[in-house]
Amino acid sequence: MKDKNQFKGKRILVLGLAKSGEAAAKLLNRLGAIVTVNDSKPYVENEQAKDLEKLGIKVVCGHHPLSLLEESLDYVVKNPGIPYTNPLVQEAIHRQLPVVTEIEIASLISEAEMIAITGSNGKTTTTTLIHEMLKNSRREPLIAGNIGTVACEVAEKATNEQIMVVEVSSFQLLGTEQFKPKVSVFLNLFDAHLDYHGTKEEYGLAKAKITANQSKEDYLVFNYDDPFVRRMANESQATLIPFSVNERLEKGVYIHEGSVYYQNQAIIKLESVVLPGSHNKENILAAIGAALIMGAELKQIKHVLQTFSGVEHRLQFVTNFEGRQFFNDSKATNILASQKALEAFQQPTILLAGGLDRGNEFDELASSLRNVKALITFGETKEKLARVAKEANVNTIIFVNDMVEAVETAFEQSNPGDVILLSPACASWDQYKTFEERGKRFVEAVQGLNTTSKS
User: What residues contact 274, with CB distance under 8 A and at least 6 apart?
Assistant: First the structure.
């Protein structure tokens, strides 16, 4: 049994609100902690802070005063998006205060065992697959983390008759000390979030914290085909379950002669799997490994793979309009994700891409542009993407200002049989609050084409 009184009377500073900060503050308050919330958004326009204040929680808004650390604090619970260069965070670390994220709180109170999924790409698809595969098994799966309800909210009510299936980011994992999933899934590692982590090595080390506290009684499902992930896995104390698209692995999950195998047992023929894109083979293998470890029924696994066609904003099929297929891949916030999306299609493709400039170039994208007949680009990175497209001999490159203009222009440049693909290769924050908002604007613009054509 987890001790849910462990936070009673503890002095805790919740730094940064958004969804996870608000959930952590409310939970810790319910658990009897003495909570102070600090958020950069001014109080007069901060509805979350006002709601928390009504619960008796102290709120300090508009700035991050170092004086907040002068009280005797037991924890700082940091919003994952706040960088460690923040002066308040740096001072807390200097004072040797535990600086954690809400996923750590969730792990400390959850009665349910956890499956935690991380990687540069494929987390949401894999998390969803595992959750679906575990349905109808002995223990009810609960989905949480970046993909659903904040993990600490789910953990508060979870029982040992349930399993938490949690998508976790490097930002969250960096703020963990005792986090110990029963099953960790490490999908891949690619140059991403370097503005936050500094180097790929540091980024990888943050991801590797998913297995840092695991023992032989726990499991690490990992991508054997990714050299960086394989090296990290070799340092884990967990029981290793590798997966590979390229090699037969007697103790893992692999593809051989058109079928998926788990420890030499045939699971399903690839021709029966409906999820599009070659990149999803890795996600499928990882999900099968994790689900079987935790008691999923083979019948349910097969059913999911024969019916599951993808998640919203992740290579999501939108519609077929006047012979053009539209796909929403707004969750492709880095180059690798867009490469994999582009490689899923053989048809001529109109690519919609662009967004927040994180300082990287896009030369690695060039080899995946061979079927792209036109680039419609927007946002801070449009000039960089245009340069790469030009060097890759993309015939048509057009700058636009918003998603409606992007979709209308893409349709004008397309022919029946073409794919029109939103796969930005960039974060959305220069123009949209989230990748979900960006994806919804795309879907709305596509739906608007039908209206326009009838008017």
Answer: 305, 306, 307, 308, 309
Q: Is 333 among the annotated ligand-binding positions?
A: no
Place domain 103-307 in its CATH homologous superfamily.
Answer: Mur-like, catalytic domain (3.40.1190.10)
CB atoms within 10 A of CB 281: 17
Instruction: Write down the domain spans for the chain.
Output: 11-100, 103-307, 316-454
Widest CA span in the chain? 67
The token pair at 454 is: 């009838």
pTM to 2 decimals? 0.78
> Does the domain at residues 11-100 carry the CATH identifier 3.30.750.24?
no
Whether residue 122 is annotated as binding a ligand: the answer is yes
302 is in an annotated binding site: no
- The answer to the question of whether 125 is labelled as a binding residue is yes
* Class of domain 316-454 as given by CATH: alpha beta
Q: What is the tens place of the pLDDT at every residue in 107-127?
A: 999 999 999 999 988 898 999
The tens digit of pLDDT for each residue in 227-275 reads: 999 999 999 999 999 999 999 998 999 999 999 999 999 999 999 998 8
User: Is 121 flagged in the annotation as binding?
Assistant: yes
Rounded CA gap, 243 and 185, in Å?
10
